[in-house]
């Protein structure tokens, strides 16, 4: 730990923090899940101006005594009802922790009409069964990135299109592009699956994120050769031919 000299301490004691403008800092969290073959985001309806009654990403101002990661975990807990972030302190073991990663910093001077606000965006990948208590003020929306565009369009279950508050459509677009880029070299797609899954479900995750069809045989060969899959010895229950269930080797 840095040992301050008396001279340095005198300088800090007399330092005038108000001599410079200080922008506000927020965190916004893109919460993505996969449901019914669609990539969806959890959004919150704003209760106050600006953008009253618009849908937005869960977010909040960073408190003075918390880190950015702590602020993002707090937003997940308070705004989305999601506990147990991978890498964050928590009580007791968690079978399937929530994957949370810092995405990008958005700092256009006019991105927030209230004042100068810099937002540090995160994205969280959540298996669908963890997201509950939908209602008028919290809901899942389907996502689409138009060809040649970077911002995301959002639709409800009846395919009605909505506009997002602030620059949150852009943030969503950056998050999806990041996930698409990482899908080929990291096991990020497993975060959207239940603990036990079939190869068909895993391929659906990849195809939904990439928005293209993949060759079934080559995809399965690649996944089985990766060493990331562990057979459970169980079969999927349901109609048709039973499929083998696998789990992700998280210790790798």
UniProtKB/TrEMBL annotation:
EC number(s) stated in the UniProt entry for this protein: 3.6.1.-
Domain Nudix hydrolase: 24-156
Matching SUPFAM superfamilies: Nudix (SSF55811), Winged helix' DNA-binding domain (SSF46785)
InterPro entries: NUDIX_hydrolase-like_dom_sf (IPR015797), NUDIX_hydrolase_dom (IPR000086), WH-like_DNA-bd_sf (IPR036388), WH_DNA-bd_sf (IPR036390), WHD_NrtR (IPR054105)
Keyword Hydrolase: yes
Record keywords: Hydrolase
One Gene Ontology MF term: hydrolase activity
PANTHER family: ADP-RIBOSE PYROPHOSPHATASE (PTHR43736), SLR1690 PROTEIN (PTHR43736:SF4)
Name this polypeptide is given: GDP-mannose mannosyl hydrolase
Organism of this sequence: Meiothermus hypogaeus
């Amino acid at each position: 730990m840095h040992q301050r000299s008396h001279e340095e301490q005198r300088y800090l004691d007399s330092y005038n923090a108000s001599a410079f403008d200080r922008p506000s800092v927020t965190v916004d969290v893109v919460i993505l899940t996969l449901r019914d073959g669609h990539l969806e985001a959890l959004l919150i309806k704003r209760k106050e101006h600006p953008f009253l009654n618009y849908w937005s990403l869960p977010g909040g101002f960073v408190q003075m005594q918390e880190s950015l990661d702590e602020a993002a975990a707090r937003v997940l807990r308070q705004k989305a009802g999601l506990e147990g972030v991978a890498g964050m302190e928590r009580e007791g073991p968690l079978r399937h922790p929530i994957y949370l990663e810092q995405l990008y910093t958005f700092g256009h001077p006019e991105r927030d009409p209230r004042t100068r606000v810099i937002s540090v965006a995160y994205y969280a990948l959540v298996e669908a069964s963890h997201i509950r208590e939908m209602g008028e003020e919290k809901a899942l929306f389907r996502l689409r990135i138009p060809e040649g565009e970077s911002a995301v369009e959002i639709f409800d279950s009846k395919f009605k299109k909505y506009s997002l508050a602030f620059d949150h459509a852009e943030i969503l677009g950056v998050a999806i592009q990041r996930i698409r880029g990482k899908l080929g070299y990291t096991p990020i797609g497993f975060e959207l699956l239940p603990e036990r899954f079939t190869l068909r479900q895993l391929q659906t995750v990849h195809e939904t994120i990439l928005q293209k069809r993949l060759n079934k045989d080559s995809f399965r060969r690649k996944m089985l050769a990766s060493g990331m899959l562990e057979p459970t010895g169980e079969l999927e229950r349901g109609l048709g031919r039973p499929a083998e269930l696998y789990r992700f080797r998280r210790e790798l």
